[in-house]
Amino acid sequence: MTKPRVAVILGSDSDLPTMEEGLKVLKDFKVSFELRIMSAHRSPDLVHDFARSAEKKGIKVVIAAAGGAAHLAGVIASLTRLPVIGVPMETSSLSGMDSLLSTVQMPYGVPVATMAIGKSGARNASIFALQILGLTDKKIAGELNAFKKRLEADVIAKNKKLKL
Ligand code: RP5
Predict the structure, then answer these.
(1) From ligand 1's centre to the CA of 4, what distance in Å?
(2) Which of 59, 138, 145, 149 has its CA 20 to 30 A from that of 107?
(3) Co-location of 24 and 94 in the same domain
(4) Is residue 1 pLDDT above 70, yes or no?
């Protein structure tokens, strides 16, 4: 196994079923990743230690998923220069709007690239991470080009199936 270049950080194990959708994408592209559970509120020291050491360990991009008062991605972004992608989890009380706003509303200088709420955000977080890696990795760039071509081909095929 090559050294992980992507770290996927979950606020809780309850986020895993949603984030598995994104992990599948990384696996499909055969990109190794580190998967950890840590909470900005319940285990701040773990978050601090991870974020301060991630770049030195060879991580290039962090995906952080959290729900509710979802400060995990923002706290990680405050502690590292690595790009941080936030995935807001769907919640039962506010349908994930709480997670979305607390992930996206970052102050100037500490951005979090915030995806859509839930599974579609989880999948796009992985695509976005691959796009970042693809800036310097020709193999990933080529595979992303092929992936985008497949998306286009699917749309064209749907048009052909239309019966008016
Ligand atoms: C957040 O609180 C987690 O990211 C999770 O989405 C939410 C609920 O966590 P659990 O109570 O299920 O551990 O920190």
Answers:
(1) 25
(2) 59
(3) yes
(4) no
